Amino acid sequence: MFKTTFRNLASHKVRFFLTCIAIVLGVGLLTGTHVLTDTVRATFDDLFDEVSGGVDLTVRAETAFENNAYGSDRELVDASIVDTVRAVDSVEVAEGSVEGYAEMVGRDGVAIQPPGAPALGWSWSDVPEFNAFRIRDGRPPRDSDEVVVDAGTADNHGLGVGERIDILLTGTRQSFEIVGVARFGEADNLAGATVALFDPATAVGILTAGAGYSSVQVKGVEGGGLAELQDDVDAVLPDNLETVTAAQLAEETASAVTDGFGIFETGLLVFAGVSLFVAGFIIFNTFSMVVAQRSREIGVLRAIGAGRRQIMVSVIVEAVVMAVLGAGLGVLFGLAVAHALLAVFDLIGISLPSTDLRLEPGTVYVGFGLALVVTVLAAVVPARRAAKVSPIAAMTGDAATGERSPATRYAFGAGAGAVGAGLVAAGLVAGGDWALSAVGGGAVLVFLAVAALSPLVARPVAGVLGRPIALLRGVPGHLAKENAQRDPRRTAATAAGLVVGIALVTFASVFAQSLKASTTGAIRSAVRSDFVVVGQSVGVTFGDDVTDRIRDTAAVEGVVPLRGRPEGALWRLDGVEKSVVGLPADGDAAIDLDVVEGSFGALTDTGVLVHTGEAEAHGWSVGETIPMEFAKTGIVDFTVVGIYSEDVGDMVGDYVVSTSAYDANFSDPRNLGIFFSSRAGSGARGDTGATLAAFPNVRLLTLDEFVDEMGSRLDQMLGLVFVLLTLAIVIATLGIVTTLALAVFERTREIGLMRAVGMGRRQVRAMVRWEAVIVAVYGAVLGVATGLVLSWAAVTAMESSGLTRLVVPFGLVGGVVVVAAVAGVVAAVLPARRAARLDVLESVAAV
Amino acid sequence: MTATLAEDRVSTDAASVTRLVKTYGRGDSTVPALADVTLRIERGRFTAIMGPSGSGKSTLLHCMAGLDSATSGEVRIGDEDVTRMSEAERTRLRRDRLGFVFQAYNLVPTLTAEENILLPSRLARRRPDPGFYREVVSTLGIADRLGHRPAQMSGGQQQRVAMARALVGRPAVVFADEPTGALDSRSSGAVLGFLVHAVHEMGQTIVMVTHDPLAASRADRVVFLADGYIVGDMFDPTPDRILDTMKSLGG
Ligand SMILES: Nc1ncnc2c1ncn2[C@@H]1O[C@H](COP(=O)(O)OP(=O)(O)O)[C@@H](O)[C@H]1O
Ligand SMILES: [Mg+2]
After folding, report:
1. Which of A474, A750, A841 sits opposite B68 (nearest CB)?
2. Which of the ends of chain A has fewer CB neighbours closer than 10 A, N or C?
3. Residues of A in contact with B175 (CB under 8 A)
4. Rounded alpha-carbon distances, angstroms, from residue A279 to A22, A290, A333, B26
C-alpha cells in the first residue's frame, strides 16, 4: 500500500514540488522570523552581559512601569548619593552616570537622526568596568569642548578625530571637537542609535542641566558577595531609589531593544500565516484532483481487497511525507531568510556584532508541527473521498466525487462568516492584548467561510467574467469559460489563495485610506494655525528652544507647542497603558479640539482634557478625578476639566494635559510640533524661516503641507500591504499552476480531440491561459468583495474612535484585479505550454 | 509527363499515398507499421480499410489525415503534399479540409452538440453554410439534441453528432477509425447508413477503418492490409467475400 504512495510521489515530482512550495514559503518565513529574533536577542544578551559585566549594581530612581524602549522615565539621582554610596564599606567604586538627548549635526548641516532609534548623549567613564565603549581612534573626552562619537555614526557620516561637530541638546545647540571614535563592545553602534559621549562634568551640565545623575554605577570590594553588597547599598538609599544587578539590567536593556523588532516580527508572522493558510488550499485541491484521477487505480485496490481505512491512510501518508519534506526545506529556507534580513538591518544602519544564527529546537518543532497540521487537515477530506471510491470504479473509471450534503458546508460557511466578522469587529473596537488574536482568528474564520461558500457563486461569476472573453476570443475563450465553470468546487479552491491575499490587501488599503481621510479631515478642521514646525523626519521630537525663538519672532502670534512622543507618551490607568500629549491652556487658539463640556482654558497643572469616546467608556464627566500613573512620578490625581469630540488621530489622541504637567511627569520636555500663525499682513514664513535656520532638526510647514505629511504617514502602512500582496499573489499563483497542470493532465484526451479536429497550438495555449485569467479574476473579485465587507465592518465598528469616513481606493482595487489577471497569465505559461505540446495521437488514445 | 500525371490525380483522387513507410521506434527495436503502401482514394467514394489487428490500419489512416508523420513516402490530400507540411499547416489542413470520427470520445464534454459540430469552423472563424448545416443535422436526426451536452446523449447520438461535425464543413475526406466499434448493432447500422448516405447523396469522400466485415460491406471498396502491406483491394464488396479474404489472410 505505502509502496504505491511513494511511487506516486516520485512519479509526479513537479506537482509535488509545486504543492510543497507554499509549505516551504510558510515554514521558511516562520522559521526565519524566529531565527532572526532569537539571534538578535542572543546577540544583545551577550552584548549587554559583556558591557555591564563590570558593574555589580546600578542605583537609580524607581519607576512605576517601563514606558520607553530605551529606558524608562525616571527622576534623577541627586549628586550627593554618589558619596553616600561610596561611604558603604563593601563598595569599592561608585560613579554617577548621565544619559540624555544629544543629536549630532552632520557636515551638510542636516541633523543626524537614526531611523527608529534615539539620538543619545552619555557620560564617559574612565572606570573600564563601567564603560561599554572602547576607544577605536583618538582618546576619551576630557574637556567641556570635547566629544567622542560612536563608530557607526562616524563611519556613516564621514566624521573623524580632530573635526568639529555641532550637537543639538535639550534647549541649546553647541559645538564640540571630536577627540575620539568608540565602539560599543563588539558592535559599531547600539542597535542603530547614535551616541555622543561627554566627560562626566560636561554631561551633567548639558544632559540633565546639572540636576543630578541618571544612575549611579557601583562595584563591590574584591571577594564580597553580591547579595550583601545590594543589602548594604539599599540600606543607605532613600525610598525613591532602587538597586538593580548587572544581570537584571542587561536583560532589561536587551529585551527593551529586541521589543523594538516587535512590529517587524508581527508582520513576518502574518506573512507566514497567510502562506500556510493558502498552502492548505493548494494541498486540498491537489489531493482532491489526484484522488479523482486515481479513482480507477483505487477501485482496483479496493477490488483486490484493500480496506477503506487503508486507502485513506495511504493518502494521509502521502500528505505527511509532503509536509515533512516541505517543512525540512522550509527550515533551510528560513535560515536563508534570517541571513537576508540581517543583511538588510546592516544596510539600514543597525549594526549587530557578528553572531551565528540561532536555530532553537522550538523553532523547528513549530515549523514541522504547523506544516503537518495544515497538510493533514487539508488532505483529510480528499482522503475520505478516496476511501469512498467503490470497487466498481475499477471498471467505470469514475469516482463518485459528489458531495453528500453541501448544506452542511453552507451552514458552516454562514456561521463561520458571521462569527468571524464579529470577532474582527470586536477586536478592532476593544484594542488591547487580545485584539490581534481576535482580528486574526476572525479573519481566518471569514476566509474559511468564504472558501465554503465560494463554490456556490463560482459557476455564475466565472460565467459572467468569461462571457466577454468568449465573445472576444472565440472558441478558446469560450472553452476557457466552460472549463472555469466546469467544477465550481475546484475553481473556488484554486482561487482561494488569491481571495485571501486580495481580501487582506483590500481590507488594509480601505482601512488605511479611511483612517487617512478621517484623520486628515479632522486635523484640517481642528488646526487653526497657518504654520507648523515639525521634526526633520516624521515623528521626531525637538526641544523647546525652538518654541522660544519662534515666540521671539516679531510677525508671529499664537505659538503653541505640542508635547509628546512619536511612540506615545505612556501613562497607566489601572494598569492599562494610555498615551497623553501636552498643550498650553491657550492651545485652543491653535488646535480647536471642539470641547463639548468644560473648557480648554481650564487646563491647569492637574487638569486633563479627555476625548468623548474615552469619557463615555469610563462614564466620566467634568470634575471627575482620574488617577494617572506615570513611570517617573507614580500616581498623580488629575481632574477632568474638559471633554472634546474632535478626532485628530495620533496627533493629539485621547488625553491632553498642560505643558507644565507634561514636563513634570515625563523626563523629556520635547515637542512633536509647534503651531503658530502669522500676524496679519506679515510675511511670517520668511521671518521664521530665517529664525529656524539655526535648527537643522526642524522644518517649517504650511498647514496644507502638515496635513499632507500626517496623511502620508498612513501611506507607509500601505507599503507593507504591497509586500503582503506580492507574497500572497506569488503563492496563489503557485496554486493556480498546480491546479491547471493537473487539469491539463485530466483533459488530455479532450485536448487531443480538439487538436485532431483542427485546434492550433496557439489556440490551446489561449484556452488554458484564459481559464487561468478567469479563475484569477474570480479570486480577485471575491477577495475584493470580502475585503470590502471586512473593512466596512471595521470602519463601522470604529466610528466612535474617529473612523468617520469609509474611503474605497478604486484605483488600487482596480489595479489589484489587473494584477490578478496578469498573475493568471503567468500561472498559465507552463501548463499551457504542456497542453499545446501534447501529442495528438497519444492524447486521443489516452484513457 | 509528370505534369499530366499530377493533373490526372487532381481531377480524380481525393487523397493518395505513394510508397508510404512508417516505422516506430529507433535502432534495433524498430517496428515497421507500414512497409510500403501506395493507394489512391477516389473522390466521392466510400473506402473501407480492413485487416487483422496490428496490420497498420490506424497508422495508415493517421498518416493520411496528417495526424502522424510518415517515415518516407508521400501523402497527398487533393493536390497538397501532407508530408511536407509543418505542424501548423497540418493543423490547418485537418481543420479546413478533413473530417474525423473516432471510435469513442469524439466530443468535447463542455460544449453542446451544436457547439461541437461547429467547433472546427469556429476555430477557423468561419461560418458554415447554414442550409447545409440544417440538412446534415436533420438527416442525422439530431436536430432536437443540439442544445445537449455529450453527457446527456447516448453513444449512438454522440457518434451522429461527431459525424455531423465531420461532414458540415464539406471536407475533402472524412476519416473514420472504427466509428461503430463501441456501438450496439442497431446504432451501428444507423451510423453506417448515414455514412453511405453522405457518400451517395452528398458526394462526400469517406475512408473508414473497421474490422467488422458487415460494416466494411457497406463501402464501395475494401482495401486489405496485413503486416504493413496492402494485400487485397475489393470493389463492391459483400460480407461473404470479405470474410473469405480475411480467412485467407489468416485473420
Ligand atoms: N506509437 C506506436 N509506437 C510503437 N509501435 C506502434 C505505435 N502505434 C502502432 N504501433 C505498431 O504498429 C503496428 C500497426 O499498428 P496499428 O496501425 O495501430 O494497427 P491496427 O490499427 O491495424 O490494429 C502494430 O504492430 C503496433 O504495435
Ligand atoms: Mg487500430
Report:
1. A841
2. C
3. none
4. 5, 16, 16, 44
Residue percentage of chain A with pLDDT more than 90: 21
pLDDT digits (tens, 9 = 90+) for A128-157: 888 888 899 999 999 999 999 999 889 888
Q: Indicate the burial class of B27 (C-beta count within 10 angstroms; 0-12, 13-18, 19 or more).
A: exposed
Strand partners, B208: B48, B176
Query: What CATH number is attached to the domain comprising B205?
Result: 3.40.50.300
Q: pLDDT at residue A115 above 60? A: yes
Nearest to B66 by CA among A543, A130, A756: A756
Q: Between A8 and B56, name the one with better pLDDT.
A: B56
B210 lines ligand 1 (CB under 6 A): no
> Which candidate in A475, A487, A764 is best for mutational testing of the B interface (most B CBs within 10 A)?
A475
> How do residues A809-834 score in pLDDT, each as one tens digit?
888 888 888 989 999 999 999 999 99
Nearest Cβ partner of B105 from A753, A763, A840? Answer: A753
**In this predicted structure, what is the pLDDT of residue A422?**
85
A690 vs A739, more confident: A739
Q: Check if the beta carbon of residue A5 is closer than 8 Å to that of residue A318.
A: yes
Alpha-helical regions (H) of A747-760: 748-756
**Strands (E) located in A420-536:** 531-535
CA nearest ligand 1 atom 27, residue: B54
Instruction: For residue A573, give the C-alpha cell.
Output: 490607568
Q: What is the pLDDT of residue A37?
A: 82
What are the pLDDT digits (tens) for A542-587? 888 888 888 888 788 889 999 998 778 889 888 888 889 999 998 8
Helix A810-837 / helix A488-526 crossing angle, nearest 10 deg: 160
Q: What separation in angstroms does the CA of A257 have from each of A34, A59, A772?
A: 16, 21, 47
Please give the tally of structural domains in chain B: 1
Distance between CA atoms of A170 and A99, rounded to whole angstroms? 12
Write the pLDDT tens digit of every residue in B40-84: 999 999 999 999 888 999 999 999 998 888 899 999 998 899 988
Please tell me if residue B96 touches chain A, with a CB cutoff of 8 Å: yes
Please name which ligand lies nearest the alpha carbon of B32.
1
The C-alpha torsion from A701 through A517 and A559 to A591, rounded to 10°, is 170
B29 CB under 6 A from ligand 1? Answer: no
Q: What is the pLDDT of residue A11?
A: 60
SS (H, E, C) B2-16: HHHHHHHHHHHEEEE
Torsion angles phi and psi, residue B215, rounded to 5:
-65, -45
Confidence of residue A667 (pLDDT cuts 50, 70, 90): confident
Q: What part of B 175-234 touches A (C-beta under 8 Å)?
A: none
Residue A581: the pLDDT is 93
Three-state secondary structure call for residue A377 = helix
CB A264 within 8 A of CB A271: no
Handedness of CA A680, A685, A686, A689 (dihedral sign): positive
pLDDT in tens, A54-103: 778 888 888 777 766 556 678 888 888 889 988 888 888 899 999 888 88
List the domain range (segments joined by +) for residue B225: 2-249
Q: Which amino acid is at A513?
A: Q
- Are B39 and B230 spatial neighbours (Cβ–Cβ below 8 Å)? yes
ipTM computed for the complex: 0.87
* Touching B: A residues 474-513, CB under 8 Å: 474-475, 478-479, 482-483, 486
DSSP line for B190-248: HHHHHHHHHHHHH---EEEE-S-HHHHTTSSEEEEEETTEEEEEEES--HHHHHHHHHH
Please provide the size of chain B in residues.
251
Position A403 pLDDT exceeds 60: no
Maximum distance among all alpha carbons in chain A? Answer: 104
